[in-house]
Design goal:
The chain is of the alpha/beta class and about 450 residues long. About 40% of the residues lie in helices and about 15% in strands. It is built from 14 helices and eleven strands. The protein has helices spanning about 1-10, 20-40, 65-75, 80-90, 110-135, 155-165, 185-195, 220-230, 265-270, 290-310, 310-325, 355-365, 365-380, 385-395; strands spanning about 45-50, 140-145, 170-175, 205-210, 235-240, 250-260, 270-275, 280-285, 345-350, 405-415, 415-425. The strands form two sheets. Strands 3-2-4-5-1-6-11-10-9 form a nine-stranded mixed β-sheet, with helices on both faces. The chain has a two-stranded antiparallel sheet with strand order 7-8. α4 crosses α8 and α13 packs across α14. The longest helix has 23 residues, at about 110-135.
C-alpha cells in the first residue's frame, strides 16, 4: 500500500514548480518579518477598573471644626490661626472632606500606630472594593506598585499589601516614596513598562495614597501651614492588565505616558521641600514660586505630549508660531495648542484653587473641562496622588465617559515634576450599580466655587 503513494511522488516532475520558488520565498520572508514585528510590538495595557476610598461620615471635618481643633491643641499663634482660616476660605475645599481619627483627638495622636491605621484603612478599603468589582484573586496579581510620598514605614507599604492579600512569592512589588502628588502617574508608567516587557499575561495593582496623620505640621512658619489646610485622607486602587482577553471587560486602554522632571533647576527643586523650621519642627514648605514653576513644567510636558495627541493642523500652527518667535524674532504671543481637539475629558491635579485657575488659563480650558478637578477639590480636598482618580470617578458618575473618548490625566508634584497619562475609553461606562465615591450624591454637583484670590506666603517665621 505504501508503494502506491511513494512511486507517484518519486516520478513527479518538479521542473514546472520552479517558477513558484520566488513567490514562496517572498511569502516566507514576509511571514517572518510579520512574526518578528508582532512578537516585538509593545503589548497593549488595559485599565480593567479602579476604586477610590470614601471614608465614613465620622471622618468629616468642617472648616469651623478644623480651626477649633487647631486652636484647642495650643500649637498655633493667633496670627497663624487667622492665616489658616484665610487659606481655608480661599482653598476651594468644601465642608465635607475627611481627616483621620488621630487628628480629630485632643491632643492629636500622630503615633506610628495611628499612622499605620490610617494608611491601611484607606488602602485596604480601596483594594477590597476593586477586587470585588473585578473578581480578580490575589494569586492572579503579578505586579504591585504603591506610592506614598512621605509615610514609608518598615516593612514597606507594598509588603503590607502582599501580606494582607497573601500574594504569591514571585510577585514583583515596588514602593515609590518622596515623589509628590504626581506619583500615581509615575506608578502607572512603571506598571506599563513592566507589563509591556512581560511575556506572560498578568495583572498589575497600582495603589496611590498619602498619610495625613504623620505629616501634620505643628509650627507657625507660613509656607508650611498651607499643607495642613489642603491635604485630606483618601486612596485609589487601579487594576491594569496586559491580557488581550481583558479587552472586552476593561474600561480604558492606555495610550501615552509623558513624564517631565525639572529638578535640575534649583528653584524648581526647592519649591516643595520637606525641612525643619527655625524651631526644628518638621514640615513641608511651599514656595511662592510654586505656580510659576508648575507653569514651566507644564510647558515642557505639553511640548512632548502635543505631537502625540494633537491633530496636524494644531501641530502646524504651533510650529509656525515657534519658528516665528525663535528664528524670525517676531514679537508675537506664544501659541497655545487647542488640547480640547485632542481630549474630551481633563483630570488636572487639584493642588489648590489657585493652581487650577492657572492651568485653566494656560490651556484655555472651559469651566466644564475643569469641573471634575474643582468638584474633587471641593468634595474631597487634595488627597495627593489619588486625587486624579476621584476626578475620573466624577466623570463616570456624571455618565460622561463614552466609547472612544480620550482622557488626559495631568499631575504635578515635588521635584518638580509634571506627568501626563492619556487613556481611551473602550466602552461607554454605565455608573449604575457600580461602587463609586460620588454616586450617592452626584446630583448635588457641580457647585459654584468662586475663583481664587492670591495668598501671600511670607518666608519669615511667625
Amino acid at each position: 500500500m505504501m508503494q502506491l503513494f511513494i512511486i507517484p511522488f518519486l516520478t513527479t516532475d518538479f521542473s514546472n514548480l520552479q517558477h513558484l520558488l520566488p513567490i514562496i520565498t517572498g511569502i516566507a520572508f514576509i511571514a517572518t518579518i510579520l512574526t518578528l514585528y508582532i512578537k516585538n510590538m509593545p503589548r497593549k495595557v488595559y485599565l480593567v477598573d479602579f476604586s477610590c476610598y470614601k471614608p465614613e461620615a465620622v471622618h468629616k471635618l468642617t472648616k469651623e471644626k478644623f480651626i477649633q481643633q487647631c486652636s484647642a491643641n495650643g500649637w498655633f499663634s493667633q496670627e497663624s490661626l487667622g492665616f489658616k482660616k484665610k487659606i481655608l476660605e480661599k482653598s476651594g475645599i468644601g465642608q465635607m472632606s475627611y481627616v483621620p481619627q488621630g487628628l480629630m483627638k485632643i491632643p492629636v495622636d500622630m503615633s506610628m500606630a495611628e499612622s499605620r491605621r490610617e494608611t491601611e484603612s484607606v488602602m485596604f478599603g480601596a483594594i477590597d472594593e476593586l477586587l470585588t468589582k473585578t473578581g480578580v484573586q490575589g494569586r492572579d496579581i503579578g505586579i504591585v506598585v504603591v506610592n506614598s510620598s512621605i509615610f514609608n514605614p518598615l516593612p514597606s507599604l507594598s509588603a503590607v499589601i502582599v501580606n494582607q492579600y497573601k500574594l504569591r512569592s514571585d510577585v514583583l512589588s515596588y514602593n515609590l516614596g518622596g515623589m509628590g502628588c504626581s506619583a500615581s502617574l509615575i506608578a502607572i508608567d512603571l506598571a506599563r513598562y513592566i507589563l509591556q516587557g512581560r511575556n506572560c499575561n498578568t495583572y498589575a495593582l497600582v495603589v496611590s495614597t498619602e498619610n495625613i496623620t504623620r505629616n501634620l505640621y505643628t509650627g507657625n512658619h507660613r509656607p508650611m501651614l498651607v499643607t495642613n489646610c489642603l491635604f485630606r485622607m483618601g486612596a485609589s486602587a487601579i487594576l491594569l492588565s496586559n491580557r488581550s482577553s481583558d479587552h472586552r471587560r476593561s474600561k480604558y486602554n492606555l495610550l501615552h505616558t509623558v513624564r517631565t522632571n525639572i529638578a535640575a533647576d534649583d528653584k524648581s527643586y526647592n519649591c516643595i521641600l520637606q525641612e525643619h523650621d527655625q524651631n526644628e519642627i518638621l514640615g513641608v514648605s511651599l514656595s511662592k514660586d510654586l505656580t510659576a514653576v508648575a507653569s514651566q513644567a507644564l510647558k515642557a510636558n505639553i511640548t512632548t505630549l502635543g505631537p502625540l495627541v494633537l491633530p496636524y493642523s494644531e501641530q502646524f500652527l504651533f510650529l509656525a508660531n515657534l519658528i516665528g518667535r525663535k528664528l524670525l524674532k517676531l514679537k508675537i504671543k506664544s501659541y497655545v495648542p487647542n488640547f480640547k481637539l485632542a481630549f474630551e475629558h481633563f483630570c488636572v491635579h487639584p493642588g489648590g484653587r489657585g493652581v487650577l485657575d492657572e492651568i485653566e488659563k494656560q490651556l484655555e480650558l472651559t469651566e466644564l473641562n475643569m469641573e471634575p478637578s474643582r468638584m474633587t477639590l471641593y468634595r474631597f480636598g487634595n488627597t495627593s496622588s489619588s486625587s486624579l482618580w476621584y476626578e475620573l470617578a466624577y466623570c463616570e458618575a456624571k455618565w460622561r465617559m463614552k466609547k472612544g473618548d480620550r482622557v488626559w490625566q495631568l499631575g504635578f508634584g515635588s521635584g518638580f515634576k509634571c506627568n501626563s497619562v492619556v487613556w481611551r475609553c473602550i466602552t461607554t461606562v454605565n455608573p449604575a450599580n457600580q461602587k463609586n465615591p460620588w454616586i450617592d450624591e452626584i446630583d448635588d454637583f457641580p457647585i459654584h466655587v468662586p475663583k481664587a484670590a492670591p495668598i501671600i506666603l511670607s518666608h519669615k517665621g511667625q
